[in-house]
Design a protein that fits this description.
The protein has a nine-stranded mixed sheet with strand order 2-1-3-4-5-6-7-8-9. A hairpin with a 3-residue loop joins β1 (28-33) and β2. 12% of the residues lie in helices and 68% in strands. The protein has one helix spanning 4-24, and strands at 28-33, 37-38, 45-58, 60-72, 76-87, 91-102, 106-117, 121-161, 169-176.
Length: 177
């Protein structure tokens, strides 16, 4: 068994490291309703874990974003598992939710009942309705798939690739390169 002094030293180091992180960019955010009922201000950048018990908002988020509705006014990097996820800037990572929207560019896996990309997206989109208003490079799997400019494959009941030379609307499988 480790000596109590070594354990105390390790815990002290963790507390000091956590407090130095919190000085510039908090590691932990928890909230019920933004901006008043949340631990850190909506203008804060979170690097760590954000827990949303109804609706939480921050400037930039890097890390894990969990539970109900998370709003990021800047960029998001990490893993989100929410009922709703709204990112005004760019996003990299995994976004799984009932509804999610990325205002900028996206790189990763977007899984949602409805997934919306306003910018360019690269990766995998899965869900009932996958919408990419910019260019989409990768694979879309869903009931309805839409890409303004597709460089990849769509699999679903209704597939729309506005830039396709052959069929811009096609059932089951569509592609454009």
């Amino acid at each position: 068994m480790k000596s109590p002094s070594k354990l105390l030293a390790a815990l002290s180091a963790l507390v000091l490291a956590g407090s130095s992180l919190q000085a510039d960019e908090p590691f932990f955010q928890i909230g019920v309703w933004a901006p008043d009922l949340q631990l850190e201000s909506a203008a804060s950048n979170i690097k760590g874990i954000r827990l949303n018990f109804v609706y939480v908002e921050n400037k930039n988020v890097t890390g894990a974003d969990l539970f109900f509705v998370g709003v990021t006014r800047g960029d998001f990097k990490g893993f989100a598992w929410n009922l709703g996820e709204w990112v005004d800037g760019s996003a990299k990572g995994v976004l799984w939710s009932g509804f999610n929207r990325v205002g900028g560019d996206f790189l990763g896996w977007q899984g949602a009942f409805v997934g919306l990309n306003e910018g360019n997206a690269t990766g995998l989109q899965t869900g009932f309705a996958n919408i990419s208003r910019g260019s989409f490079k990768g694979l879309q799997l869903g009931f309805v798939n839409y890409a303004e400019k597709l460089n990849g494959v769509q699999v679903g009941l209704l597939n729309v690739a506005r830039n396709s030379d052959l069929f811009w609307i096609f059932p089951f499988v569509n592609f454009a390169f």
